[in-house]
Amino acid sequence: MILPIVAYGSPILRRVAVDITPDYPNLTQLIADMWETMYASNGVGLAAPQINRSIRIFTVDSEQIIENLDEEERQEYEGDEGIKETFINAHIVEFAGDEWPYNEGCLSIPKVREDVMRPETVTIEYVNEKFEPQRKTFGGITARVIQHEYDHIEGKLFIDYLSPLKRKLLKGKLLDISNGKVRMDYRMTYPKS
C-alpha cells in the first residue's frame, strides 16, 4: 500500500526515532509498504518518520542511481555498485574520508534541492529484516543516501546542513510546503495549522 509522505513542518520529522523489536506489529507489511511508497514517489530512500512512524527503519535503493550514471560518473564512484536494503535499528559507528558536496533533495521537502557536504564513507550497525546483526562500511553515493536517511531517524533534515543565509533564502519555500501550498504527484500529509 502506498502511504502518504509527511511534509516539512510536521513535528515527527524532528523527533529521534526509537529502536523496535522483532514483534513490532505488522513489520513485514510496513517494510513492503515503505518500498512501494518510495518507488511510487520516485525516491531512492525512505525513512519511517516520513510515513509518520517514529521508529528506526529506513530503506535505500542506490542501485537505481548507479545504473543511471554515465561512464564518466561511474568512474567517479568506482567501487560503489549500489545497494537495495532495509536498515532497522541503525546506529552510525564512524564517518571517514573527506567531505564532498552533492545536490540533495527530500520527499518530505519537495521541489527544494541544495548542495550538502557529507563524509565519503560511513560505517553503520543495524539489523536486517530477519533481525540479523549487520556492521558494514559504505562509500560513494550509497554512503550519501544512507547518511541522508539516517538523519531522518535522528530528527535531522538535509536543510540543517545549509548556511544560515541559504536557510533564510529558503524560508518562503519551506513555509509554502508546511502550509500545503506545494503539491506533488505523490500523496503527502501536511502539518495541522
UniProtKB/TrEMBL annotation:
GO biological-process terms attached to the record: translation
Regions that span the bilayer: none
InterPro entries: Peptide_deformylase (IPR023635), Peptide_deformylase_sf (IPR036821)
Coiled coil regions, renumbered to chain: none
Its EC number(s): 3.5.1.88
Record-listed Fe cation binding positions: 106, 148, 152
Alphabetical list of Pfam families matching this protein: Pep_deformylase
Catalytic activity from the UniProt record: N-terminal N-formyl-L-methionyl-[peptide] + H2O = N-terminal L-methionyl-[peptide] + formate
Enzyme class: hydrolase
Cofactor: how bound: Binds 1 Fe(2+) ion.
Cofactor: Fe(2+)
Keyword field: Hydrolase, Iron, Metal-binding, Protein biosynthesis
An MF annotation (GO) of this entry: peptide deformylase activity
Active site: 149
Protein's UniProt keywords contain Protein biosynthesis: yes
SUPFAM superfamilies with a match to the protein in the record: Peptide deformylase (SSF56420)
Protein's job: Removes the formyl group from the N-terminal Met of newly synthesized proteins. Requires at least a dipeptide for an efficient rate of reaction. N-terminal L-methionine is a prerequisite for activity but the enzyme has broad specificity at other positions.
Family: Belongs to the polypeptide deformylase family.
Entries under HAMAP family matching the protein: Pep_deformylase
Protein name per Swiss-Prot or TrEMBL: Peptide deformylase
Protein source organism: Phnomibacter ginsenosidimutans
